[in-house]
Amino acid sequence: MKTIGMIGGMSWESSKIYYEHLNRMVKEKLGGSHSAKSVLTSVDFEEVERYSFSGDWEKIGNLMAEHAKKLNQAGADLVVLCTNTIHLVSDAITNAVSIPFLHIGRATGEAIQQKGLKKIALLGTQFTMEKDFYTKILEEEFGLEVLIPDLEDREALQSMIYNELVKGVFTQEAKEECLRIIGKMEAQGAEGIILGCTELPILIPGNEVKIPTFDTTKIHAQKAVDFALS
Questions:
Q1: Residues forming a β-bridge with 42
Q2: Among 128, 178, 197, 213, which one carries the catalytic annotation?
Q3: Which of 41, 82, 83, 178 is catalytic?
Q4: Tell me: the pLDDT tens digits for 108-154?
């Protein structure tokens, strides 16, 4: 079994879900008392959040590269960045280490392709929805048509994620707001919904949505386990 290296803390609310998924998936695969071999390095999210809102992605890239190197030195065989948004600086990670980096957008694209869907809606932070680091992979590598909510709904998601979800606040009001946005995307022809913020699957269980949802945390964790056991 290979050792999975995780860069967590963005937020730790979803990082703990990654750890749970990895260990459950390894146990399901191997049985007995098996669990995932892993190494975790975790950032102070306040720092990352501050750089994100000031647009200083170079500093975030340098920080992620530093943490990826720590994982490499600690014996990790692959790197998993436990967040969607910060994949914006994924090149900084791949350039910093010699071990494989598993991109969450690519793993999600593969999962959507397996379902045979063509038109998909992406929910997440404004950075994830509005910049092309995520949608470009889905469109160019997987031939998907990617829909994003209108500006008002993108701003609502941004506020909800940063003011509530990353702080561990998951309310019924926030859930209803997300379901309302999902309903609008379905009306626009979305065949499925990418829960493209690792906290969103905590708020919105897939069984509460009529069309397929793609839990990026679970998909990413499964990809890491498949790689580790290959």
A1: 8
A2: 197
A3: 83
A4: 999 999 999 999 999 999 999 999 999 999 999 999 999 999 999 99
Distance separating alpha carbons of residues 165 and 177, to the nearest angstrom: 13
- Record the pTM: 0.95
Q: What is the mean pLDDT of residues 8-30?
A: 96
What fold, for 4-103+218-229?
Rossmann fold (3.40.50)
Cα(154)–Cα(20) distance, rounded to whole angstroms?
A: 29
Which residues are bridge partners to 70 per DSSP? none
What Cα–Cα distance (Å) separates residue 53 from each residue in 22, 90, 158, 194, 226?
31, 18, 11, 23, 35
Q: Do domains 4-103+218-229 and 105-215 have the same CATH topology?
A: yes
* Residue 116, number of CB atoms within 10 A of its CB: 7
Q: What is the pLDDT of residues 188-222, one digit of tens each?
A: 999 999 999 999 999 998 778 999 999 999 999 99
Domain boundaries, the chain: 4-103+218-229, 105-215
Q: What are residue 7's DSSP bridge partners?
A: 41, 81
| Structure tokens belonging to residue 131 | 């910049």
Q: Is 83 an annotated catalytic residue?
A: yes
What does the block give as tokens for 99? 């071990």
Residue 147 tokens read as 């829909």
Q: What is the CATH number of domain 105-215?
A: 3.40.50.1860
Check: CB of residue 18 under 8 Å from CB of residue 80. yes
Active site residue 197: yes
Alpha helices in the chain (DSSP H): 12-30, 45-54, 57-73, 90-96, 104-115, 126-130, 132-142, 151-163, 172-187, 200-203, 216-229
